[in-house]
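debug: dumping io for the single-chain case to check the tokenizer round-trip. Nothing else runs in this session.
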Amino acid sequence: MSDRRGDSSSVLFILYVKDQQRSCDFYREVLQLEPILDVPGMTEFRLNGGAMLGLMPEAGIARIIGNEPDPASGNGIPRAELYLPADDVESTIERLLAAGGKLLDAPANRNWGDFVAYGMDPDGHVMAFARKAAEEA
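debug: decoded output
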């Protein structure tokens, strides 16, 4: 495997997107990361823990999957969720909104012990930004 991805234990999750450049700009702003790969047909961001996020144009995957339903037919419909750690959930949601995302559910303590806000990227992928909830005194 090439240096850009690290060792073979790296995990790459790929989201199919309508506009690769728009999605690259969106994720660059929200995640405050630079892509480690950005070529026609694929953009990749290295996340914490060795995981990677890929952005592939819907047209590219449509060519690969042949007669299966066109991924573009689901554009805007929530089809995936990214659950990401965020030290400052509120600031991360502000960046999401400024970059063209949508707020789905305001930051709140959740019954599983995290403080989480939910948003949506321009393609309809749900994004959760979470940190451990503060302990009650």
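debug: round-trip ok. Strands lie at 11-17, 37-39, 42-46, 51-57, 81-85, 102-109, 114-120, 126-132.
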